[in-house]
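WARN no homologs supplied; continuing
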Amino acid sequence: GTVWKDVSGNGNDGTLVNSPAFADDTFLLDGTDNYVNCDDILPSGSQNITLSIWIYRRDGVVNDYILSKGTASDGTAGSTFYMSNGSTYVRFVATDATPTRSTNVEHGGIVLNQWYNFTYTYDGTTIIGYRDGENPRTNTSIAGPLQYVNQPILIGSHKYGGRHPQADIGSFSLYNRALTAQEVLQNFNAT
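OK structure emitted
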């Protein structure tokens, strides 16, 4: 098929671009050109959100985009958030309505060929990143609504194409509120 169905019942289906493979309830991104386009499902003025993604990295290419909305440039107009990787880390960057003000949280010690769950919450003042339901990293360098850009949320791509990770994606969740640490851990343990 060409659609990744939204199981929440909200109708926020994703479009599969360039036919990512699907096996064992997982999308297999080839690192060349396939990704998932989730459309512009984040409303303008969002300042209470949670994003959660399961990922299994199969290569160590630096600066591939696991998740993005907008141009994904640090601290510039046109980027709401993005999640990229280094050789041994994963970084989440978000920009508030002041387009030159962005912040990030980073988790190191990431190895290839292992499943990880990354969850990021934002409550209008603090971004908290969790790896596997624990190990919180916080940053308070931005405040208020996230910068809104009329761009889709992309899983496995950058707005301008390219930078596709060779990775497996098990699931992606977007909430219209900042989950608590207890809820993040509960969701991790439930999968």
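The mean pLDDT is 87.
OK
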